[in-house]
Amino acid sequence: MPFSWFVYYMTTPLAIFAAVSVVFIIEKIGGFYFKNKHFFKRNWIRILSVLLILLVATVVIYRSNTVYGKIMEASVFYSTTDVKALDVGVWIKNNYPENINVTCTEIPGFWLQVFSGKDVIAQTDLAVQRMEAAEAVLTLSYELEHSQTLVKAYQAKGDILDEKYVSLDEVWSKVTFSSGSGDFLLYTLNGVDYKIPIAQLSKEIHFENNTDSITFIFGNDDVVLNKTISSQDDSYAFDVSWSMTPLKKDVCNASLYLTTNFDLKYHFEKADIPGLMDWINPWDAPEQIRTTEDNLWTSAAFASPHLKNRYLGLYDETYDVGFAFRFIDLPVWGNIGALGNRQIDAVRLVYNFDLGEEQSPTITYQTITLSKNSYSELKPETLKEFFDYQSNEVTITRDFYDYIIENNIGLIVYDRNQLDTQMIHSDMLQLIYSNDRYVVFKIIM
């Protein structure tokens, strides 16, 4: 039973127990008063009693808004069902009598099982319990997990290709992401220059459990571009490789523009490129490498000769979270961008593909994402050392497709408030029912 349901079922008996306890205490106080009236006739006792009553009343009044707010918050949290959810459940029961299971968002939650008569795998509050199967199926995602770092890749999440997470108090928290509109493929064909957002290329994803890797295959009539994210059991770093294969012999001058975006709930304000930027903010970088737009943003540029240590690190001193690159192959150019509030929002890299020497050139770099919450010895100066840290943990892989097969999941129910509208365009999902609050998709295998 999920913890939130345990609390839900315990609330009523606890309220009854509290009421009985209060009545019992009041009766005992009343009995004590009547037996000792002569004692309470003294003025100082009366004054003390009045002061205590006033103190209790003041505390109750002072905290009333907070208590009321928490009561309303709890009522919303535990009201995980409504008439619209009942309509969904009844519709599923009437239209899908066959033996299939359902996955749904936190709302309507497990109540859908009561209404539909189906076994339900429901999403839960991440701070209480993480239902891996529900999370993977609801987002059509793949995961590579170490104990303190996680990569997620998505079959259909709009622009988002993959995300990197850290564990904060045993809850996964997103730190960075890459998007199809922020990454570009550039090349020349028959004298014409092309700059194509990766989001405009066709996309397939291959997930290999035996190699702990996720491969994106992008393409058009001219080129095929592969991105592979892989992990090793003895390292917390993730390897990222890009390879390009021209489909036409006249393709030349190929390059890749990549952007790593940082979730703005974090406050990365210090960056390190040894010898160029020694744990400083891009706003404080040497003037000759800095580009500024009024007070709105700035970027600190670097080139491959600056990366003598093949390393670039960033650190958030508010949450004590670190993110870093180690370049197996050096980019020809890059920059670190910061907003007007000094918050680093992105790192951009440019790689050239040498098509003259090989037909499928590859570039590789590593990334690492860690929090001091997980490693007490983590600090900016030691971040680089974790690329060589030897762990004894096995990579955990999760594939939404495997969860669908293993659990015989045939339907997905989304709360409209949590629905990524890009899911509608997935070839695996067919919209079969919707109302004002919920949307039901049939899984097409």
- End-to-end CA span: 30 Å
Identify low-pLDDT runs: none
Distinct helical segment count: 7
The top-level CATH class of the largest domain is Mainly Beta
How much helix, percentage-wise, in residues?
10-25%
Round the Cα radius of gyration to an integer and report it.
Answer: 29 Å
Break the fold down into its secondary structure elements and pairings.
Layout: H1 3-35, H2 37-40, H3 43-78, H4 83-95, E1 101-104, H5 111-116, E2 120-122, H6 132-139, E3 141-145, E4 149-154, E5 160-168, E6 171-179, E7 184-189, E8 192-197, E9 202-208, E10 213-219, E11 223-231, E12 238-246, E13 251-262, E14 268-273, E15 277-280, E16 290-293, E17 297-303, E18 311-316, E19 321-327, E20 333-339, E21 344-352, E22 362-371, E23 396-399, H7 400-406, E24 409-415, E25 429-434, E26 438-443
Parallel strand pairs: 1-2, 1-24
Antiparallel strand pairs: 3-4, 3-23, 4-5, 5-6, 6-13, 7-8, 7-13, 9-10, 10-11, 11-12, 12-22, 13-21, 14-15, 14-18, 16-17, 17-20, 18-19, 19-22, 20-21, 24-26, 25-26
Helix pairs in contact: 6-7
Can you put this structure into words, describing what you see?
It contains seven helices and 26 strands. It is α+β, with helices and mostly antiparallel strands. The strands form three sheets. Strands 3, 4, 5, 6, 7, 8, 13, 16, 17, 20, 21 and 23 form a twelve-stranded antiparallel sheet that branches. The chain has a nine-stranded antiparallel sheet with strand order 9-10-11-12-22-19-18-14-15, with no helix packed on it. The protein has a five-stranded mixed sheet with strand order 2-1-24-26-25, sandwiched between helices. Helix 6 crosses helix 7. The longest helix has 36 residues.
